[in-house]
Specification:
Layout: E1 3-6, H1 24-34, E2 36-40, H2 42-50, E3 55-60, H3 69-73, E4 78-81, H4 84-91, E5 99-104, H5 111-115, E6 120-124, H6 130-142, E7 147-150, H7 160-166, E8 175-177, H8 184-190, E9 194-198, E10 205-206, H9 207-211, E11 217-221, H10 230-235, E12 238-241, H11 253-265
Parallel strand pairs: 1-4, 3-4, 6-7, 6-11, 7-8, 9-11, 9-12, 10-12
Antiparallel strand pairs: 2-5, 3-5
């Protein structure tokens, strides 16, 4: 059972995991150095723990203790209890969802493990916005995709903002980073997946036609700015486009993912 520790000083060193949450670069360095990530909100904290991640500690206002009592009963980690005003001083923002947890990062699984039994996969190249990564995970989970693969420069799915936008689905959908960017798509093709790149290329076909009749499919999506690299666009088995009204040529990558996942799930 978690040890309840009441905190009255926002400078208490035991709260180090929760400081300066608005400073993205500082948090990325700190979390990588200490092998941790943060979950925010009752539902997300619960999903992280149920997903097998080991808590380092919890931080919450008194009114959230009852709602997470069953989670705290299963953990030996300390639970730091402080007022919402003090929590805001520590984190740098109003913790309106009331509860945070610091959890241990696990080693990423291999591509083989993530793809075992998978038929529908999302593959992301250089999607660098944490909100977009979280939204993509949420759409993939909601529409029955089995796994997500990320190129080396993609944003961290376990960054607090990504987890929050994903509503904790990053703990349910198997994912890992690709060890080889250059031949990533040919490797997926060799594994029996048809790689379908979302792109404005001249030889793109409507997404409905591109995924029709496919058994194992990997939807490939590029960065928020220039989209897919020429290498990935050209090495994909097929290129697809989401037909749109005249004068509009593209959607935000998270919105495009949702549409493409919906069509692909009904192929």
């Amino acid at each position: 059972m978690a040890t309840i520790v009441e905190i009255a000083d926002p400078a208490d060193p035991r709260l180090a995991d929760y400081r300066d949450l608005r400073d993205v670069e500082l948090r990325k360095n700190l979390e990588a150095e200490h092998g941790l990530f943060l979950a925010e909100g009752e539902k997300v904290v619960r999903r992280a723990v149920e997903g097998g991640h080991v808590p380092r500690s919890f931080l919450m206002a008194p009114r959230w203790l009852d709602g997470l009592a069953d989670v705290l009963d299963r953990s030996d980690a300390p639970c730091y209890v402080l007022s919402e005003a003090l929590a805001e001083q520590v984190t740098g923002f109003h913790v309106h969802r009331g509860a945070l947890a610091s959890l241990e990062r696990r080693s990423l699984p291999s591509v083989d493990d993530v793809l075992d039994g998978a038929r529908s996969v999302l593959v992301l190249e250089d999607v660098v916005d944490h909100t977009n990564v979280g939204a993509i995970f949420r759409s993939g989970a909601a529409l029955g995709f089995d796994a997500v693969l990320l190129a080396p420069r993609c944003a961290d799915p376990l960054y607090r903002r990504s987890i929050k936008v994903a509503m904790g689905t990053v703990f349910n959908v198997p994912w890992t980073r690709l060890p080889d960017w250059y031949d990533a798509l040919p490797d997926l093709s060799a594994r029996g997946f048809t790689t379908v790149a979302l792109t404005l290329a001249d030889d793109s076909s409507p997404i409905e036609d591109a995924v029709a009749g496919l058994d194992k499919v990997a939807l490939v999506l590029g960065s928020e700015g220039h989209g897919l690299s020429p290498r990935w666009e050209q090495s994909a088995d097929r290129r697809a486009i989401i037909p749109m009204a005249e004068g509009v040529d593209s959607l935000n990558v998270a919105a495009a993912t949702a549409v493409a996942c919906y069509v692909t799930a009904r192929r």
